[in-house]
Design brief:
Blueprint lengths: L5 E6 L1 H11 L5 E2 L6 H4 L19 H14 L1 E2 L3 E3 L17 H6 L7 E6 H7 L41
Antiparallel strand pairs: 1-4, 1-5, 2-3
Length: about 170
């Protein structure tokens, strides 16, 4: 397994024992149920139109309704992904099991477990869902000029493995 890319899932012992291990499933939550302070906060997004100024006329009420709808209908699950070079040295602090933020936010405040999955097997396990999915690293930024707002949302042929964001 040392030549494989690994995806680590932090969770509580209770969730791992009752749901993940016996059922071979990973629970997904909508944005209203996440506990990460950055993921659950209200972000100052606004609607814009590519072809006209119509997007600038959306009211705050409409935006609030859209955000509420998206928070209820977009589901996600979180993994930390390691490349091979990160785990050749078992004691480097870049390893997933040293990530104190992940242990705090997802690993039941440092009392939970971290499950390791073969990235490619996990990805292929979800390939038959037929759902519209996005996967990739999470980047927090306050410089909104660096975000590719028009990055296409793609339907994964290989499934999902990390975060679901639009």
């Amino acid at each position: 397994m040392l030549n494989e890319k690994l995806a680590y899932h932090f969770t509580s012992v209770d969730t791992a024992v009752k749901y993940i291990l016996p059922n071979n499933t990973i629970m997904m939550n909508n944005f209203n149920k996440v506990n990460d302070p950055k993921e659950s906060k209200d972000w100052p997004f606004n609607f814009y139109s590519i072809t006209s100024d119509q997007g600038r006329n959306f009211s705050k009420t409409l935006f609030s309704k859209a955000r509420t709808y998206l928070n209820e209908h977009i589901f996600m699950t979180c993994f930390k992904v390691e490349e091979e070079e990160q785990y050749l040295d078992d004691y480097t602090q870049n390893r997933a099991f040293f990530d104190m933020r992940m242990w705090n936010e997802y690993g039941d405040k440092h009392k939970g477990v971290m499950l390791a999955f073969d990235f490619d097997l996990l990805e292929s396990a979800y390939s038959d869902t037929g759902e519209l999915m996005y996967s990739g690293p999470v980047r927090y930024t306050y410089d909104l000029t660096n975000i590719d707002w028009f990055q296409p949302i793609k339907k994964w042929e290989g499934g999902y493995f990390e975060f679901f964001f639009f």
